[in-house]
Hints:
Mean pLDDT: 87
Distance between the termini: 28 Å
Order of helices and strands: EHEEHEHEHEH
Strand content: 15-25%
Helix content: 25-40%
Strand order of the largest sheet: 3-2-4-1-5-6
Shape: globular
Amino acid sequence: MKILVAAVKGGVGKTGIALNLATYMGAKCVTNDLVVNDNSGIIQLEPKSRSLPLQFCNRQPMVFDFGASYNSIDTKLAHAVKQSDVIVIPTLTDARSLQGTIDTVNLLKVANKPTAIIINNFTSDTKFKHAKDFFA
Length: 136
C-alpha cells in the first residue's frame, strides 16, 4: 500500500503522521519538505526534481509526506497522488487549519482516491466536535 499524507497548511502534523504510518507499516517515508531532520529517517526529494524517482514508484509499502500550495498541485505532488492508494489529510481544530483541509480536499479530489481526514492534537472534546461538525 502507498499512502499520501498531504495538506496545504503547514504545522498540522503531516510529518508526524507520515513517520508513524511508515514505522507501523515498515515502509519508507519520502517528503518534499525543504528542511528535514537528519535523524528522522525520512528521505528528502531533490527540490529541483519534477517527479518521484522510479525507486519510490515501484516500492511497496510507501508513505509520501507532501505539502501543497493553496491553488495548484506541483508535479511531484501530482505524481505522488497518482502513485498513492489512499490520501490522508491531517488538520488541527483552528479555523485556518479547517479551511486548509477543505482547500486540500478540493485540490486533490480530482484523483478520486479514498481520503481520510485526521483531526490532530485537539485539546478538548468540544474542539473535536466543532471540527467534526465543520466537515459534516
